[in-house]
Specification:
Largest sheet: none
InterPro entries: Hemerythrin-like, Hemerythrin-like_sf
Structural class: mainly alpha
CATH superfamily: Hemerythrin-like
Keywords: Iron, Metal-binding
Family: Belongs to the hemerythrin family.
Number of domains: 1
CATH class: Mainly Alpha
GO molecular function: metal ion binding
Order of helices and strands: HHHHH
Strand content: under 5%
Helix content: over 70%
Protein name: Hemerythrin-like domain-containing protein
Distance between the termini: 18 Å
Length: 139
């Protein structure tokens, strides 16, 4: 399945989305590295702001690509999920601006890891399978 997924992603022009997903986890790892460095906690806000900007660009790109291949109702569900994640990133930035601490940063890291792993490994995988099914039915 991995080879098929890779071939379909290349064919559909969405291979770069996997690179974006890796970058999202890189931002989360940067946050994790700050948890036990109180002198550097203020950098957590900047990392989250950069993650928010990056994720917004990713969302726009991904949604445009999905609209080319999937029924509107499926794309709309995915858009709602993206909106929830964007809202959580916004709330996290506000939360850290109010009170920055190791505990708050760790809570955000844990939530982001859980959310994005679930999103990428569950929802995005299901969407890829739907795209593969649609593409195979056309041949």
């Amino acid at each position: 399945m991995k080879k098929v997924d890779s071939e379909v992603k290349s064919f559909l022009g969405i291979k770069s989305l996997d690179e974006d997903h890796d970058a999202i986890f890189n931002y989360i790892e940067q946050l994790q590295a700050l948890v036990n460095e109180p002198k550097n906690h203020e950098y957590a806000i900047g990392i989250l702001e950069r993650l928010l900007a990056f994720f917004l660009a990713h969302v726009i790109k991904e949604e445009q690509q999905l609209q080319q291949y999937l029924p509107t109702n499926i794309v709309k569900e995915h858009i709602l999920q993206h909106q929830d994640e964007l809202d959580y990133l916004d709330e996290s930035i506000i939360s850290l601006k109010v009170k920055i601490s190791s505990n708050n940063i760790q809570t955000i890291v844990d939530q982001l890891n859980q959310e994005f792993k679930n999103h990428i490994y569950r929802y995005d995988r299901n969407i890829m399978q739907k795209i593969i099914k649609i593409q195979n039915s056309k041949h």
